[in-house]
Amino acid sequence: MTFKRSIVLVGLLVAALAFAAVGSAHPRDGKPGGHHWKGKHPHGKHWKGHFAKKGPYTVVTTDNGSCGTAWATDTVKRTFFVKKKRDGSYRVWRFDRGKFVTLEARSPGACDTTGRHGSIVHVGARGRMHGYLVGTVPSTFTFNKDAVCPADCGFTDVFLTAHFGPGASDQFSCFTNSTDCRFAFKYHGFHSQGLVFHRWKDAGHGAGTFLHERFQGDIAHA
Asked: What digits encode the pLDDT tens for the residues 93-117?
């Protein structure tokens, strides 16, 4: 994942899920106060509920791999969904979908200790990526659906601060030592670019000392 400004998941998730946004569009919201939506849940399950949609924002990110080093630049559309739970806390989903261009670097899967993967990626290989991050903001904060987003609202910490107030980012479950975080990001490199590995997946759950992260495949020239 991505950035020059980190989304800062404590531990290795900082490397794998790092994001930087250098540009952002004005958010396009749903109906005031959210609206009812029934269909495919972001995680593939059917889901119905009252939620607020914010975005998409255009985000340009530096993407770090399993070695904790940058291997690509991503350009994505980022959208947030917020749903209030019965206990007063808020479930926050973040979705990214876009393209990547590789740097001259160690491949994203190079430091994986399991499975088959490569070691090197050359500059200029292109592909597509998509993924999600989901966590919880505690009930001590209140979601402001009418908040005015700054230009860099594609940053997760900026989005949370703008819509929940100061301190919300520090208490977001994906930015603390918590079991309450899930994420999955998939990358597919286009063929005919000399790649020997075309697909990489970074997925897991938890954050900080509770982080459990799994890598699969690679985007690599060798």
From this structure: 999 999 999 999 999 999 999 999 9
Tokens of 221: 């020239």
Residues 16-27: pLDDT tens digits? 343 333 332 222
Neighbour count for residue 49 (Cβ, 10 Å): 14
Which residues are 65's β-sheet partners? none
Written as one string, the DSSP assignment of 38-55 is EEE-TTSSEEEEEEEEEE
Give me 25's structure tokens.
Answer: 């569009």
Residue pair 74/200 in contact by the 8 Å Cβ criterion: no
Give the closest residue to 16 by CA, choosing from 71, 64, 69: 64
Residue 1 within a domain: no
Domain-located, residue 17: yes
Ramachandran angles phi, psi of 71, nearest 5° = -130, -10
**How many domains is the chain built from?**
1
Angle at 28 between CA 22 and CA 34, to 5 degrees: 130
DSSP-derived secondary structure letter, 173: G
Residues 6+ apart with CB under 8 A from 173: 135, 136, 137, 180, 181, 207
Q: Per residue in 13-59, pLDDT tens?
A: 333 343 333 332 222 222 222 333 333 445 444 445 578 999 999 99
- Domain of residue 190, residue span: 12-220
Residue 51: what pLDDT? 83
